[in-house]
Amino acid sequence: MHYLACDLGAESGRLMLGTLEDGRLSLEELHRFPNGPVETEHGFCWEIPRLFSELKTGLRIAASRKLPIKSISCDAWGLDYFLLDESGEVMEPTFCYRDNRNQKGIDRTLDKLSWEAIYEETGIQFVQINSLFQMAAESTGRIEQMRTFLPLGDGFNYLLCGVAKAEISLASTTQLYNPRTGNWAHKILDAFNWDHGKFPELISSGTCLSTLKPELAEESGLDQIEVIASCSHDTGSAVAAVPAEGSDWAYLSSGTWSLIGMELPEPIITDKSRELNFTNEIGYGNTVRLLRNCIGMWLLSECRRIWAEEGQEYDYATLTQIAEKAESFTSLINPEDERFFKPDDMPRTIAGFCLETNQPEPATHGATVRCVLESLALLYAQRLKEAEELTGQPIKRLHIVGGGSRNALLNQFTANACGVEVIAGPTEATALGNVLVQAITLGDLPDLTSARQVVAQSMDMESFQPEDSAVWDTAKTRFKELT
Question: Which helix (H) or strand (E) holds 376?
C-alpha cells in the first residue's frame, strides 16, 4: 500500500511516499523544497502560492512512479492560518508567527480577557505567537472580509480537495479551542464578536475529506485519490509515530521548536499548569498532549545562517563535531529569553547574554554550539521535571523524534540532564505519523498501538544512558539561576 504525506516545516517542505508492506513501513522523499518567511510590504509572511506550486510539482513526480497510491494528507506547523474570502480564495497575506504584529494582538486580547480566563477556557500556554494573538492583531477589514478561518495544514488539504474543515490536533493549538468541550472556545470568540460560523466544522484525526480536485488529478497525472486529514499538526503526527509502550514515557519532538511532554487521557487545566505554562493539545484518538513548546534547533539554524553570511558554512554534523571539541559548561544561556526569538545576529546575541550574566563570551563557533546544546538539554530536564510534578507520574524513558534526534551529542546531553534513558528516532516521525494515520483511516492498520509497533519494527533507534550525573546536577543549579 502506498500513501503520500506532505510535511510542511518552517525551513523546508517535502512530499514523502510511504509504503506499507509485510508489517513494515518505508519512506521515500519524492520532492523537497525550501521554505521560510519573507519580508513583504505587509510584514513577515509565507509564500503560499509558491509552496502550493512546489507541492504540485511533487504530485507530478509521484504520478510518474506509476504506483497505486491510495491517499494524501498534509501536515504543518501550528499557529499560522489561512483566511478564506467569500469566494473561497486564500486572502493574502498569510502572516508568519514571527511577524512583529503579535504584541498588538496580545494587548488587544488582554484588554478583553484575563490571562486566567483564557487559560481556563483553552488550556494553552502563553506564547506570543499563538493564533489567538495573531487573530486579535488582524484588521477589522480582514476579519469582516474573511469567510473561513483555517489552520495552515488544513488549509493545504483544502487546496488539494476543496473541503475546508479543521482537524482537532491542529485546531487545539490555536488557543481558540476548548479541550473540555471539544469545540471552538466560544467565550473567546464572543469576546471579540467573531462570527462562530466563520470557524469551520471540527473533525477527528483520520477523517476522509474528499478526493483530489479533478483539475489537480489531471494536471499531475494522479488519480482522484483520497485526501485525508490525518493529524494536520506536525507534532500530532510525530507523537503518533513515537514507538513507545506503557505509560512511563515522555516525548520530545525536536526541530525548529522543541515540544516536550506526555500523552494523557484527559487535559490538565489547573492553577499549577497555568503557572508552569503547560499546554493541552489533542492527539490521535482524542488523547491529550500535555507539553511545553520551547525554542529548539532555531538557535543553531540561525547561527548557521549568520556564519554562512560571514563565509563559514557548516552542516549540522560539523557543528556537532566542533562542539564536542569545546570545553564543557563554559557558558550557559536561557534559551527561552525573548531576545532569542528573532534576533538579527544569533551568535552575537548569545555572546551578549553570556556577558550580561557574568559568563565568558564563547570564544569559538564550537563553544557557541556547545553552549546552545548544553542549555537546551538543561531546559528539557527542567520541563520534564515539571511534567512529572503536574501528572504525579514518574518518567523513565524520553523518546526524541524529528530532525533534532540526529544530533547524538544533544541526545547524550539530554540523557545526562534528565537522568533517564533517551531513545532517539525515528527522524522522520512526522511523515511516518501522517502516513500511519492514513493507513488506520483506510483500514490497512487496526489501531495506533499496531501502528507504533510498525514503527518499532521498521526504523532504527539509538539508546543513550545518563552519564556524569554529579556534573550535570551542578550545571542545573547554574541554569536555574539564569532562568
Answer: helix 365-391
pLDDT greater than 90 at residue 10:
no
The Cα–Cα gap between 60 and 100 comes to 37
Total domains, the chain: 2
Q: 203, 234, 265 — which closes off a domain?
A: 234
Confidence (pTM): 0.92
Q: How many residues does the chain have?
A: 483
The SS3 of residue 463 is strand
- Could you give the percent of the chain with pLDDT greater than 90? 97
Q: Is the pLDDT of residue 11 over 90?
A: no
Q: What is the DSSP string of 104-127?
A: HHHHHHHHHS-HHHHHHHH-----
462 with 416, same domain: the answer is: yes
Active site residues: 234
8 A C-beta contact, residue 337 and residue 346: no
Q: How many whole angstroms separate alpha carbon 300 and alpha carbon 302?
A: 5
Task: Say yes or no: 207 and 62 in one domain.
Answer: yes
Tell me: do 186 and 123 sit in the same domain.
yes
Cα-Cα-Cα-Cα dihedral of 358, 361, 362, 363, to 10°?
Answer: -140
Task: Give the domain range for residue 250.
Answer: 242-425+446-483
Residues 46 and 150 in one domain: yes
pLDDT per residue over 379-436, tens digit each?
999 999 999 999 999 999 999 999 899 999 999 999 999 999 999 999 999 999 999 9
10 Å CB burial of residue 415 (0-12, 13-18, 19+) is: buried
Identify whether residues 227 and 271 lie together within a single domain. Answer: no
Q: Are 17 and 71 in contact (CB under 8 A)?
A: no
At residue 444, the 3 state secondary structure works out as coil
pLDDT tens digit sequence for 315-346: 999 999 999 999 999 999 999 999 998 899 99
pLDDT tens digits for range 442-465: 999 999 999 999 999 999 999 999
For β-strands 288-295 and 226-229, DSSP reports them as unpaired
Interstrand relation of 226-229 and 207-211 (parallel, antiparallel or unpaired)? antiparallel
